[in-house]
Design goal:
The protein contains 21 helices and 22 strands.
């Protein structure tokens, strides 16, 4: 059987080499020009406790989601792998620990659960790993060799990646791991007939792998990030780790502070002092930042806050995905507290979007909350990122010489944006406070002043629409079924649309990186052209659907997807087909 796309899952417990297996397979696939997406699901517990899985989907075509089901399961921990067998497609394969080919007496809890429509590939993983290195730790490499032979893939693509991953540990470790890989490949060659083949494109160029978190960091660094303050929190910590490595190279600062309140406070201080500054957190941290976010609104200080969402509430599910923080991003503050909210859909948008976030925050003197999520932030995918590097980039509205003579920090302007100076600049003196204030910044509690300043703060959000990208409309433009997607669900939606299209049902999608503000006319026109509207999202309440209903008066079909697993394209397709049936009635 020939394949042009595969989805392979490694399952084990912490310490089984599950993540490194995914890295090797993903790196090898990207190196030969394949499109790749990798998703890790792991426990929040310490090493040796809890189940971990890594799923690698690779294809000759662009991979937009993790898809539905897997073609091959490598069960390195039998008990934990039982639940994963159900995801193996009919005609797929399970590699399990076995002393002899086809023996189901060992690791019976896994082998006995492999259904007849799935091929059982027994491989003595432990015995071959011990033969290669004297330990069991190379079992994942043995399994890698087995799947290499199983799909008739060139061994050299794997061996090059093994050398890259383990090279820093020395020649002895690298050689042992390559030997474990070769023994797995040889064992399957001698004991199992080859009936699978993956077709590689000749001359395909190597592709670059990047995570959403890495793309956010690189985009921020390239557009002038100078100061990062943060507190470690899954799944956003990687952004701070990268900032700690790279910012000192550019005379920048990265500090780990005592909590998220201190982090946002430090960001506001650095931004007040004229530097592009940001922090990164997840839901519990964003909750703690609410008061200082309000200060950013009131004092009109730029700030960029990346929120990599995870399951909640409270500390919730630290290592599982959810899109549950939209409401707090939009409304988490006392009084009328407007802030920009953005949500990238893929790594490319993480890079370009964070640069837009800095430009907007600085130009309009407002906080920008950048809503990623665990799946987007931590997944690794092939991406084409057109780098735009300008470390001196600035969009601040600065006062002219005449305005400095009698500087009014909160001057009323047509666009709602007042000229902003760095403290200590000659000729400029002003007060800044979290209290309501006059144009000079001095506290004032009169109703007319509060109304004037509230109007000023909101007027900026109308002005900035000219700087915002237009919404994208994808799919069949004349379709009667419309879908609205946000964040990392977009890829699965597009694949679901393609599945439905192959069954004769057309649909179209409107998506925008901008949650607030939006180009509302585009959305109104889109909704007016639809007979059925579907809004899929990964939260229980339907938070984006509620926003759209209140803003546009629509009555959508809501898909509330529970936390933990990425969105299923098949389920999206099913909803499209059901919507089409409703139209036909």
């Amino acid at each position: 059987m020939n394949y042009s796309e595969l989805s392979i899952r490694f399952c084990g417990i912490a310490g089984d080499g599950v993540v490194s297996s995914g890295k090797i397979l993903a790196g090898a696939s990207a190196a030969v020009g394949l499109q790749v997406m990798v998703n890790d699901i792991y426990s929040a517990e310490i090493r040796g406790l809890g189940k971990s899985t890594t799923t690698v989907r690779f294809s000759t075509k662009k991979v937009l989601s993790m898809g539905d089901g897997i073609d091959l399961l490598v069960g390195m921990a039998a008990k934990e792998s039982i639940a994963e067998v159900k995801d193996v497609k009919p005609g797929g394969t399970v590699i399990y620990e076995s002393s002899t080919p086809g023996d189901v007496s060992t690791e019976e809890s896994l082998a006995a659960h492999i259904p007849p429509e799935v091929r059982a590939l027994g491989v003595p993983l432990k015995r071959l790993a011990n033969k290669a290195s004297g330990t069991n730790r190379g079992r994942n490499l043995v399994a890698m060799g087995a799947l290499c032979h199983h799909y008739s893939l060139p061994p050299e693509m794997f061996e090059a990646e093994i050398k890259k991953l383990f090279g820093r540990k020395g020649e002895k470790v690298t050689a042992a791991n390559i030997e474990a890989f070769r023994l797995g490949c040889k064992y399957c060659e001698e004991n199992y007939q080859l009936n699978h083949d993956f077709t590689l494109e000749e001359g395909a160029q190597p592709r670059r792998l990047i995570s959403g978190n890495e793309a956010v960091h690189r985009g921020a660094l390239h557009c002038g990030l100078h100061f990062f303050a943060g507190y470690p929190i899954t799944p956003a910590t990687k952004i701070m780790e990268l900032a700690a490595i790279d910012l000192p190279k550019y005379d920048g600062w990265c500090i780990q502070v005592e909590d998220e309140i201190a982090a946002i406070s430090a960001v506001l201080g650095a931004s007040f002092a004229g530097k592009r500054a940001m922090t990164a957190t997840s839901g519990p941290g964003l909750c703690l930042m609410s008061e200082m976010l309000n200060l950013s609104v009131m004092a009109e200080i730029p700030a960029v806050i990346v929120n990599v969402q995870r399951g909640g509430p409270s500390t919730g599910l630290p290592t599982k995905v959810e899109q549950g923080d939209l409401n707090i991003a939009l409304y988490g503050g006392s009084g009328d507290s407007p802030r920009v909210v953005m949500a990238p859909a893929d790594s490319e948008e993480c890079y370009t979007g964070i640069q837009l976030a800095f430009d907007i925050a600085e130009k309009y003197q407002t906080p920008v909350i950048f809503l990623s999520d665990l799946f987007l932030g931590q997944r690794i995918e092939t991406a084409v990122i057109e780098e735009k590097i300008d470390r001196q980039r600035s969009t601040r509205k600065k006062p002219g010489a005449d305005q400095l003579k009698e500087y009014l920090r909160f001057r009323i302007t047509d666009d709602g944006v007042s000229p902003l100076v760095v403290p200590g600049e000659p000729g400029a003196f002003y007060t800044i406070t979290g209290l309501e204030h006059t144009v000079k910044g001095t506290p004032n509690y009169e109703a007319e002043v509060h109304s004037m300043m509230t109007d000023k703060r909101y007027r900026k959000f109308e002005t900035m629409k000219a700087d915002l990208p237009a919404a994208d409309i994808l799919g069949d433009k004349n379709a009667r079924i419309g879908i609205v997607g946000w964040g990392s669900t977009v890829g699965a939606i597009l694949e679901g649309m393609d599945i439905a299209r192959k069954q004769g049902v057309k649909s179209k999608l409107i998506k925008s990186i901008m949650i607030f503000p939006q180009h509302e006319d585009s959305f109104r026109e889109f909704f007016a052209s639809c007979q059925q509207i579907i809004v899929p999202e990964m939260n229980y309440q339907g938070q984006y659907a509620a926003l759209l209903k209140s803003r546009y008066g629509i009555k959508p079909i809501e898909i509330h997807i529970p936390a933990v697993d990425p969105v299923s394209p098949g389920k999206i397709a099913q909803k499209i087909l059901e919507a089409n049936d409703e139209i036909a009635k």
